[in-house]
Specification:
The structure is a single chain. The protein has helices at 24-38, 70-82, 89-116, 183-200, 210-224, 226-231, 240-258, 265-287, and strands at residues 2-5, 11-15, 49-55, 58-64, 68-69, 118-119, 128-133, 141-146, 153-154. The protein has 289 residues and is an alpha+beta fold. The N and C termini lie far apart (42 Å).
Length: 289
């Protein structure tokens, strides 16, 4: 998405058809229709769709403007922690809490979508937008929301893949192809990938290559252990209590989302609970409680 000024002067995010991508107009039309379908049940965890308008001489889908996405946030946090640009333990915790907060909002957004009777189908870090707010230069308050509903479909059609959306299964963060393929699995698996990467402090490349995460998960299962992966990563300088909370979150993501053959909508609901617990526990640990 690009952020531009609308004719009224308001900052908005827009999405145009891409001339170098075949079927881009069709995908854009599908996304518009899907956004219109969920407008009747608005969620604060979905990027608000404002309509289709002519922006800068071209037809475009217009959304509320957001600042960045989870991939960029996690990448900057991982780099700063790895290169020890964070001088204090508290700085690492603060940035980790920002990442977890956005992941929690994304999980809530997926759950809201499921409650409406739809599957997102393309849950990746790039499709989770973030917004900073709050007083002062630190802008400490942060929130997240889902975008990109081009692959959204009704949950009651969650049987074998249709030919229309089969091509999207080749995205690296989606689970391996199988028939019958349950669409709830796509959302649970995508969320599991995000949580496992965050919990382990894995390299950001893992967010765009699900196979990297799968291999990492297999290594953990095979004896290297989640604890070792966390200890040797950027979270290794955090307190043992905080690392233990990340270990528990990673264990949940690994066994209930990534490697769970029958993960369903309940996996997403459990993920919301786990992330909320992790945020609360880390906050308490950082405060010395």
């Amino acid at each position: 998405m690009d952020v531009v000024a609308s004719p009224s002067g308001q900052q908005v995010a827009i999405k145009r058809a891409k001339s170098d991508m075949p079927h881009s107009e069709v995908v854009l039309e599908r996304e518009m229709q899907n956004n219109l379908r969920i407008c009747g049940s608005p969620s604060s965890y979905h990027v608000k769709f404002l309509g289709a308008h002519n922006i800068q001489g071209a037809n475009a889908l217009v959304f509320e403007a957001w600042h960045s996405n989870l991939f960029e946030l996690y990448t900057s946090c991982h780099a700063a922690s790895s290169e020890m640009r964070f001088a204090h333990h508290d700085e690492i915790v603060r940035h980790l809490m920002c990442v977890l907060t956005v992941a929690r909002d994304a999980a809530r957004g997926v759950l809201d979508l499921h409650m409406m009777g739809y599957i997102h189908g393309d849950l990746s870090a790039m499709n989770i937008l973030i917004r900073h707010a709050g007083p002062g230069p630190e802008r400490t308050a942060i929130s997240g929301a889902l975008c990109d509903f081009a692959t959204m479909m009704p949950a009651d059609l969650s049987g074998p893949c249709s030919s229309v959306t089969r091509q999207t299964l080749e995205r690296a963060w989606l689970p391996p192809m199988s028939e019958p393929f349950q669409w709830y699995t796509r959302d649970a698996y995508g969320l599991g990938i995000l949580l496992l990467v965050i919990a382990l402090g894995a390299h950001p490349d893992a967010l765009v290559c699900g196979q990297v995460v799968a291999n990492l998960g297999l290594a953990c299962v095979g004896g290297h252990g989640l604890e070792m992966q966390i200890a040797k990563g950027p979270w290794g300088r955090l307190s043992p209590r905080i690392r233990e909370e990340l270990h528990c979150l990673g264990h949940f993501a690994l066994h209930s989302c990534v490697f769970a053959p029958w993960n369903t909508r309940s996996s997403v609901h459990e993920a919301v609970i786990w992330i909320e617990h992790t945020i609360k526990a880390i906050s308490g640990a950082a405060a010395g409680f």
